[in-house]
Amino acid sequence: MLKVSSYPHISSETTTRKIMFIVIAALMPAFFGSIFFFGIRALIITLISIVSSFACEALCQAIRKKPITINDGSAILTGLLLAFNLPSCVPYWVPVVGAFFAIAVAKQVFGGLGYNIFNPALAGRAFLMASWPSIMTGKWVVPRLGTMSGIVYSLPVEMTSNATPLTALKDYSSVLGLPELLNAKSTIYSLFLGMRGGCLGETSCLLLLIGGIILISFRIIDFRIPLSYFLAVFSLTGILWLLGVTPVTPLFHILSGGLFLGAFFMATDYVTSPMTRKGRWIFGIGCGVITVLIRLWGGYPEGVSYSILLMNATTPLIDKFTRSRIFGH
User: Which of 43, 107, 147, 298 fits as disulfide partner to 120, beta carbons 3.0 to 4.6 Å?
Assistant: First the structure.
């Protein structure tokens, strides 16, 4: 006898809770790395962000008279990712405000998990950047065993010693000898290991790469989005480097800023990224192109967060035009 039922017809033991905690586990190398590079303050800011997200989620669901689902791990992940997008020197109230916006406004207002249009952690960071830019970018902390810009040699001018790699490129690229230092093997080595200034969880490309490999190995994320993201940034900056538009190599652009964190852990968010394979290629390429445009011609030295948020808005349109042909039609 044939029983007709509605889709989906494939069952799986994978749950939302399991997926969330695998992603959290994949972020642990970068989390412990942030404590090593920036000290105990990194731990405190991360805990404040997680607890604030946890509490805000429970409060919003209680107000909406919805089932409390804080044990699914999504609020913990949002708090962790938000902390990773904050400098270690921010006041302790900053992650509280950012967590409130991320959970209450960017997530619960739209209906909760599965209904949000934008990545909550990135929306929280964008809100903080728009509200308190001087706090978010005004002061950075030199990481342990590293330098602010990642350059291990003496800098051409004293003022660049307080600049992160992308800020140095943005504000001081015309300084004689600086591009050569940014392209040096020692600088690339520092960028890869995380011995440079930046937000808590974005500095070490090595630790984030380990986490990304874990997610791909467990099939938690699709490789298409991060791969297309990296290829788009590398190809576009490579062309612009050959044309003399940017003085640094594509490898510098790949390893600097929050590209690894964004490509592996935020652009791949299930809810805000396309469902189709072709759509994921388009999504990643779009993120890469916008990132490069903001870095080279925008008002901010970094464009990863805004590129992902902008592409989040296009996800429904991408899914509409790249969906598979329905069987029988």
Answer: 107
